[in-house]
């Protein structure tokens, strides 16, 4: 009969505590820490043979690294990156909210064939990695640019991203046009605001076999982000945003922005009489 591993036996019940709850994670972290130098090896042994436990191991390693960046737990995280399995997907999702892993996320983002490429791109955007813009721009392809890249670039607000936002203003997919307008407005251009305001009225489309919700709520999200207005992903957010738009901008100003955008200009001429009084 095989000898039972007491350290593993101590940890196994903690894997089941409230499944993936924050409280359950805290207890598992405490259990690993209590084992001292055998904590991480025991965690590795306990995670074998179960995808769920392997994911919980990742959660524990990331949590331990939060408390001790650059320590043994972070070293194991980096080791796990070399193993291309289902757990790596979970790992990169956890890394993308932690700035200490920006170098690793950049390395993944350089390789468009990496299975976790999209998560890494999203992470660089979420973490505001302006130094990673060159890596992201290398993967752009005009209107064929992957959507996740547009989203990341609009978060980074680097002027070079205008080169990819502009061709996507005429993209056939409305969602992509929203992000192109959002990205240009985030760079400080005023004409795209009119495009976003117009999309507050983007209709939902229902047929006997399909439903497309329209992009009015996403346009509201963009405007709220740009002007620091409160936003929740709820239907009423659209009308609330319309009300704030009416309070901030005159119809003449928005019309001037729309005209400029239609001509391919991102800003109004400085001498446009509608510019100063229109932008309240």
From TrEMBL:
InterPro entries: ARM-like, ARM-type_fold
Domain of life per record: Bacteria
Protein name: HEAT repeat-containing protein
Annotated source species: Nannocystis exedens
């Amino acid at each position: 009969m095989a000898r039972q591993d007491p350290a593993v036996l101590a940890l196994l019940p903690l894997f089941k505590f409230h499944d993936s709850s924050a409280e359950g994670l805290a207890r598992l972290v405490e259990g690993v820490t209590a084992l001292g130098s055998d904590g991480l090896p025991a965690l590795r042994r306990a995670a074998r043979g179960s995808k769920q436990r392997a994911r919980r191991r990742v959660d524990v390693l990331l949590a331990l690294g939060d408390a001790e960046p650059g320590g043994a737990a972070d070293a194991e995280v980096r080791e796990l990156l070399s193993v291309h399995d289902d757990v790596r997907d979970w790992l990169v999702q956890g890394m993308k909210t932690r700035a200490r892993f920006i170098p690793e996320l950049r390395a993944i983002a350089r390789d468009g064939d990496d299975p976790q490429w999209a998560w890494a791109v999203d992470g660089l955007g979420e973490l505001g990695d302006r130094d990673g813009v060159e890596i992201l721009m290398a993967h752009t392809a005009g209107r064929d640019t992957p959507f996740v890249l547009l989203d990341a670039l609009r978060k980074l607000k680097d002027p070079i991203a205008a080169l990819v936002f502009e061709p996507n203003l005429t993209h056939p997919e409305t969602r992509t046009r929203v992000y192109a307008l959002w990205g240009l407005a985030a760079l400080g251009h005023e004409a795209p605001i009119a495009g976003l305001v117009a999309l507050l009225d983007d209709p939902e489309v229902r047929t006997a076999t399909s439903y497309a919700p329209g992009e009015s709520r996403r346009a509201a999200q963009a405007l709220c982000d740009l002007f620091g207005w409160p936003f929740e992903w709820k239907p009423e957010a659209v009308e609330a945003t319309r009300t704030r738009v009416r309070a901030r901008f005159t119809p003449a100003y928005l019309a001037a922005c729309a005209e400029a955008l239609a001509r391919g200009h991102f800003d109004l001429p400085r001498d446009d009489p509608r510019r100063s009084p229109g932008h309240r």
